[in-house]
Amino acid sequence: MIKFFRKIRQKLLSENKFSNYLIYALGEIVLVVIGILIALQINNANEIKKIELRNSKNLNSLLEELKSNKVIITKNMNTVRNQISNSLHHIDSLSNPDYEIADLETYFLHSQNDLGPISINSVATTSLSELVSSGGYSEIASDSIKRSVSEYQSQLNDLDKRISAFETYWNNIELPYTMDHHSLLDMWLKGQHVDLKETERQIARKLPNFKRNISYFHVQIDAYKNNRTYANMYVIRFFELSRILGSIENLDNSVDKLTEKIIEVVEE
């Protein structure tokens, strides 16, 4: 093809047909430009298709992650709701002078197993992180999905802050109080899931002859029963747990919203 055009140019020049040569040269330039434009269009079409495929893959991956997280979030909400309920009953039973507990020591030892630090499962963020770090977020065509992704990220960060605030409360207020007035040894020995034989097997050593039917250290009842400081501490606990629950509920709503938006786009 190149040789063909070269022969035409040489023939026109040799025949001194300069005007015809100019027309030919312009035509050749036009053909080259058209060829470049066609190549660019094909390249752009291929690039758009690659972006669409990558976008679809990223959204489907995020969708599966959201579905798994929905299950975890539901369990976490139930865990925190139980903690709030147990905390409120605990405050009432210890601060209400009309409320009688037959065996206070046994009550304390068992109630602490239902309270203590918050323990909730972490949600997965692998697909979300890859979407953002790989530049996939900027390739999302739907503005509503982008807004929902940003809201989802914001709710995840807010929950982390709420959990961190509760851990600060627990480590700086509740745990020191428990250490000062409670017997962790007795609570451990009387725990429902304590298996001393299993512990011996794990460490391959004989354990001391711990007695489960006695109390090594008596609970300081006055530090708990009708004690304003302890009641105040558990009110703070209630507020911190309520903030966590509110944050989890907001996260749950953001998951539902983002899931709905992604399904709308994927199924189009």
Describe this structure in words.
76% of the residues lie in helices and 0% in strands. The chain has 268 residues and is mostly helical. It has one domain. Helix 2 packs antiparallel against helix 4 and helix 2 (18-95) runs antiparallel to helix 9 (228-266). The longest helix has 78 residues, at 18-95. It is elongated and about 105 Å long. The mean pLDDT is 81.
The number of domains: 1
Helix count from the secondary structure assignment: 9
The chain-level mean pLDDT equals: 81
Shape: elongated
The count of DSSP E runs of length 2 or more, i.e. the number of strands, is: 0
Give the termini distance in whole angstroms.
45 Å
C-alpha-based Rg, rounded: 35 Å
Given helix and strand content, the structural type is mainly alpha
Detail the topology: elements first, then pairings.
Elements lengths: L1 H13 L3 H78 L8 H8 L14 H8 L2 H4 L3 H39 L2 H6 L6 H8 L24 H39 L2
Helix pairs in contact: 2-4, 2-9, 6-9
Gist of the model:
The protein has 268 residues and is mainly alpha-helical.
